[in-house]
DNA sequence: ACCATATACTTACTTAGGTAAATAAATTCG
DNA sequence: CGAATTTATTTACCTAAGTAAGTATATGGT
């Protein structure tokens, strides 16, 4: 029975990525790339480590995505004072377009969550956050 | 704010896959492969279409995974009466080992859901199922 | 019976994620 | 100071998922 839960999460994850990719098509962008743009918009220039830590993925994943985004002109990477690290920031083009994308994605999310009340959405986030391994202490659960 | 929800789903999806892969290592198996084994164990021999429809993925995804599983001896594919379709079933080896894997995965899931009561788990499934596009009618929500 | 269409699967190519190992810069310690 | 260790990023190789287009078998309409 519990299989159902992970099965369901896995499916909704794929579904949302698929829908986001569809919405991003007109901007020539992919979901993981958008996640990074969104992150940079929120926090300003940051190191690659900052990005993969926030996104909770491994370093190579971010490297690859950033290479593609640099090639397509969404981001710029420059050397930090610590020469090991590279500081990532939005390109001018990205700065201009990100608000439009944000709007488009917000509409999509609203459509996909239309069947849930605001209360249910909050409940859902609260419960999902509880999933995990032992390191799921109060601090993680408390920050809502 | 709503970004948080998809962000969270995406992360838990990755996390659960990562943990499942870790648990499956000793069986030389990957999460998507296990999903198919589980499916075949539940329903018995079925066509590839049956598998990708149940799993809610595209046909090529299943083709690829089955090719690997056939090579490593987990499944067998034979021609159906309709010569276009291929009927997939567990190998003898798989029949023997699947129960052990099932047990291992069940333990893992229990650990990952330890912070949620049974009631919360049911609630969580109910809410997740509500996520989707327009085709989210009563039938989908009612079947719990 | 034949041609057009539909269906089941496969192939080729793309993004996205992971691990392991390599590289290069910083830091620590004797 | 110099060698050893740690840290940030990259490279190489794996699974997983998607789309688009190709192949082969069934099916339907005239």
Automatic annotation (TrEMBL), chains A, B:
Keywords: Coiled coil, DNA-binding, Transcription, Transcription regulation. It comes from the Bacteria. Residues 2-133 form the HTH marR-type domain. Gene3D superfamilies: Winged helix-like DNA-binding domain superfamily/Winged helix DNA-binding domain. Residues 91-118 form a coiled coil. GO terms for molecular function: DNA binding; DNA-binding transcription factor activity. This is MarR family transcriptional regulator. It comes from Planococcus salinus.
């Amino acid at each position: 029975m519990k299989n159902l839960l992970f099965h369901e999460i896995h499916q909704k994850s794929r579904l949302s990525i698929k829908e986001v990719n569809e919405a991003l098509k007109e901007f020539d962008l992919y979901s993981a790339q958008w996640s990074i743009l969104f992150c940079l918009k929120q926090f300003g220039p940051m190191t690659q480590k900052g990005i993969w830590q926030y996104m909770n993925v491994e370093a190579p994943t971010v490297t690859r995505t950033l290479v593609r985004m640099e090639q397509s002109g969404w981001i710029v990477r420059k050397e930090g004072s610590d020469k090991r690290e590279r500081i990532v920031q939005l390109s001018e083009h990205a700065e201009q377009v990100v608000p439009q994308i944000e709007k488009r994605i917000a509409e999509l999310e609203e459509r996909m969550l239309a069947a849930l009340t605001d209360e249910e959405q909050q409940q859902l986030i609260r419960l999902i956050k509880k999933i995990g391994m032992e390191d799921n202490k109060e601090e993680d659960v408390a920050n809502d």
